[in-house]
């Protein structure tokens, strides 16, 4: 039995944060029912695409059931509210609409509603605008650059999605202990501020007169950088600890003063290290560097394109977290299950994403007890897909 067997979640969502939260719960065994408009929501055809289908949508909705209904109609809003009340646990990042906390909690007092917003006041913001305001684009990029550099990974969406899953489970635990439901609010902006503060950047800005400089591909505060091999590959080398520093020195044949055992010294005098390490790497192939570094347990890793990741990473084929799935109308690829391993429960295999609206009749019958005649009438009125 999976660790979340018996937990049912209604997900009304779009884009990344809430869908990732739902996929995280589904990967651990929860029955996650995603609701979309008839014909699909605003992220139904989001890139990357293959054969006209969104790989993004397929990846974020693995293992869920899909319901489509028109929540703009009165009957559709009533169906959505009825589903929320019957399920009892809701995850959303869309405007309240039919998911008003006041209305839903009146229908079911022990309801848990996890609502993700852009800003804490509910106003619009997305990962990219939140990141722009959080300071990180001005410490990202080449040292000589003057303007901001955007991060291509939607990091605040990802962090918020995982945190939303944890918050939902915490609220469910509270409900089990007290019998009380609650509305849980989490915003992308607050997550970005919290992480920025945890990483010391807020305190640094208050206590230090000079702003943090850009350091390009160097790792801030420690010894780390990218290098290019003789055969044109790129790799990352780091020495975070004294042991890792000694391992790097032995592997390369470097000899530096004793004070380099200190991390701050290695960072401040890193150009002296690069002057030795850069030509050493440049004179060898990736395979030769890998052999030397692996023998001496150096902390390093290759840079890869996505295609190289698929071709070279054995864990995509051998790791039990991955298994090939067939997504109807799209293709076949290694898909991921939950990265969390529980000692008392087996890891669930990855499951494909549903076709849009695939489980509409099944869910409405199972959860709300609707019969064939009523389902047919709803389809005729185009209230459900």
Please summarize what this structure is.
The chain is built from 16 helices and 13 strands.
Describe the model:
The protein is of the alpha/beta class. It has 2 domains: 8-196 and 317-380, Crotonobetainyl-coa:carnitine coa-transferase, domain 1 (Rossmann fold), CATH 3.40.50; 234-302, no CATH class. Helices cover 41% and strands 16% of the residues. The chain has 16 helices and 13 strands. The strands form 4 sheets. A 6-stranded parallel β-sheet has the order 5-2-1-6-7-8, sandwiched between helices. A 3-stranded antiparallel β-sheet has the order 9-10-11. Helix 1 crosses helix 6 (155-178) and helix 6 crosses helix 7 (188-198).
Task: Label this structure with key terms.
385 residues, alpha/beta, Rossmann fold, 6-stranded parallel sheet, 16 helices, elongated
Order of helices and strands: EHEEEHEHEHEHHEHHEEHHHHEHHEEHH
Number of strands: 13
CATH class of the largest domain: Alpha Beta
Into which percent range does the helicity of residues fall?
40-55%
Number of helices: 16
- Adjacency order of strands in the biggest sheet: 5-2-1-6-7-8
CATH topology of the largest domain: the name is Rossmann fold
The coarse overall form would be: elongated
Name the CATH superfamily assignment of the largest domain: Crotonobetainyl-coa:carnitine coa-transferase, domain 1
How much is the average pLDDT? 96
Name of the CATH architecture of the largest domain = 3-Layer(aba) Sandwich
Largest sheet: 6 strands, parallel
> Proportion of β residues?
15-25%
The total tally of domains equals: 2
Computed Rg: 25 Å
Structural class: alpha/beta
């Amino acid at each position: 039995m999976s660790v979340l067997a018996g937990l049912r979640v209604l997900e009304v969502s779009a884009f990344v944060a809430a869908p990732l939260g739902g996929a995280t719960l589904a990967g651990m065994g929860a029955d996650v029912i995603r609701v979309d408009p008839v014909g699909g929501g605003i992220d139904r055809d989001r890139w990357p695409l293959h054969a006209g289908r969104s790989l993004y949508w397929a990846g974020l909705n693995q293992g869920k059931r899909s319901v489509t209904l028109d929540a703009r109609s009165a009957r559709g809003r009533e169906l959505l509210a009825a589903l929320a009340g019957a399920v009892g646990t809701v995850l959303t990042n869309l405007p309240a609409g039919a998911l008003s906390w006041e209305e839903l909690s009146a229908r079911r007092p022990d309801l848990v509603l996890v609502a993700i917003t852009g800003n804490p006041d509910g106003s619009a913001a997305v990962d990219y605008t939140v990141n722009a305001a959080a300071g990180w684009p001005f410490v990202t990029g080449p040292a000589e650059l003057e303007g901001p550099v955007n991060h291509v990974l939607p990091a605040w969406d990802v962090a918020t999605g995982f945190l939303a899953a944890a918050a939902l489970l915490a609220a469910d635990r509270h409900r089990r202990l007290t019998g009380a439901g609650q509305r849980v609010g989490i915003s992308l902006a607050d997550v970005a501020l919290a992480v920025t503060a945890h990483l010391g950047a807020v305190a640094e800005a208050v206590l230090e007169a000079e702003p943090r400089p850009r350091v390009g591909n160097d790792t801030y505060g420690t010894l780390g950088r990218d290098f290019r091999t003789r055969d044109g590959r790129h790799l990352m080398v780091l020495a975070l600890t004294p042991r890792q520093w000694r391992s790097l020195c032995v592997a390369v044949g470097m000899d530096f003063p004793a004070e380099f055992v200190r991390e701050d010294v290695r960072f401040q005098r890193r150009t002296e290290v690069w002057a030795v390490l850069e030509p050493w790497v440049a004179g060898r192939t990736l395979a030769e560097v890998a052999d030397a570094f692996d023998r001496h347990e150096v902390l390093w890793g290759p840079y890869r394109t996505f295609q190289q990741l698929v071709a070279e990473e054995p864990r995509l084929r051998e790791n039990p977290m991955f298994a090939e799935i067939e997504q109807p109308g799209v293709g076949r690829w290694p898909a991921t299950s939950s990265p969390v391993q529980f000692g008392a429960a087996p890891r669930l295999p990855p499951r494909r994403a549903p076709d849009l609206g695939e489980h509409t009749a099944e869910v409405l019958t199972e959860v709300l007890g609707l019969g064939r005649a009523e389902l047919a009438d709803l389809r005729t009125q185009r209230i459900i897909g």
